Amino acid sequence: MGIRPNLVYDDGSIPGVDVVHLHHGVWLNLGAPDATAALPQRFFASGEEKTAMLLPAPYGYPYSTTDHWVLNYMLHNLTPEATQVWVTYDIDIIPADAPEAVGMLRARPIWMDVQNGKGYPVFDAVRGMGDGVTYTYPDQATAPYGNGPQLNEWVADADGTLIATAGHLHPGGLHTDLYVERDGQKAHAFRSEAMYYEPAGAVSWDVSMTATMPDWQVSVRQGDTLSTTATYDSGLASWYESMGIMVVWMGETGGDADDPFTTAVDTPGMLTHGHLAENDNHGGDLDNRYLDLTALPSAPASATIPIQDWVYTEGDMNYAVSVPTVKAGESITYENLDANIGKGQWHTITACAAPCNRSTGIAYPLADGPVIFDSGELGLGGPPTADRTSWAIPTDLPPGTYTYFCRIHPIMRGAFRVEE
Ligand SMILES: [Cu+2]
Q1: pLDDT per residue over 231-266, tens digit each?
Q2: What's the 71 CA to ligand 1 centre distance in angstroms?
Q3: How far is the CA of 299 from the centre of ligand 1 (A)?
Q4: What does the alpha-carbon distance between residue 23 and residue 25 come to, in Å, rounded to a whole number?
Q5: What's the pTM value of the predicted model, to 2 decimals?
Q6: Contact indicator for 261, 182 with CB cutoff of 8 Å
Q7: For residue 256, how far is its CA from the centre of ligand 1 (angstroms)?
Q8: Separation of 338 CA from ligand 1 center, angstroms?
Q9: 226-239, pLDDT tens digit by residue?
Q10: Cα 230 to Cα 47: distance, rounded to the nearest angstrom
């Protein structure tokens, strides 16, 4: 069986990823318990990388018409215009009484996740973390789980055969890895690699992930520890609220499985699709809608700058005639008034390299300011918001003009200035 996800308009056409996209979706089966967390069984996940899931013969995921499936999704509309879209998923199904079903073996999903069990399982991969080139979570994080359990691990509850996996990452992600540990020995089982079509590199959704080949079969025993890690680029930009997920399919024992401790099972995977046309607007071109705020004069900043109707009311890159300015050591507080609209319109103030005034696309702007700051999502109601509607700029900023953008609505840009 297999699943292929997508996001479409009413007429079946696919929106540009720079307009509206499937940030992530998790498919759950309410009729079964999840193997790795106290949740209904999570059996498929996708973001805009749209990796197709394919189980190799003779394995399948048993489905009964009494099963209830739920889709938990986050759509990301990057524009102020409301729009109707549909999450679609095409399923390959083999009826139990079909000739092809004879001899099929059962498989179940093992949800591996570097923040497993969290309602919003994310971490920040900030530029400079790790070795400054790449950052692997949780291995290079400081106390990623505090005193709690290792969320990226799972102890196998039965013998079985791992038959398929692929990684889910956000832009900036480079690879996810799967390991099997037994008696103090740790074997690398698979690397799901992000293959970027994006000309600017590992910075956008113009990517596809490798999945295991059909002949990848890895035997595990009850008591083995499975673990996963997620590696992001940490040289080009910061990646906030990043994910690292590998759904691993585990079949009944049987078939032609390799022992990961005696066979190098971590062979290269395959791509399930190529470049997708909805990723064609990369951005980064000249765009006269945006001002070069580094060239505008200074004006004293108000102590609090409201964000209203998708505008930074002082220093907005579309409208400003001057740049709100404070003396070194002083602060400015941004207050998001749009957080009160409907369920809340959440904005961020995220550093981007000046002048940050080129056209908006899937690869522009980026969180690549030479001085790193990010407000979090200014809004209330729990994750993904920061559960506050205001944010104060750091008071230790050296003199300079600081350009920023909204990570949620990258058409929103602005700047403030610090002077001696
Ligand atoms: Cu915004």
Answers
A1: 999 999 999 999 999 999 999 877 689 999 999 999
A2: 25
A3: 24
A4: 7
A5: 0.94
A6: yes
A7: 51
A8: 9
A9: 999 999 999 999 99
A10: 15
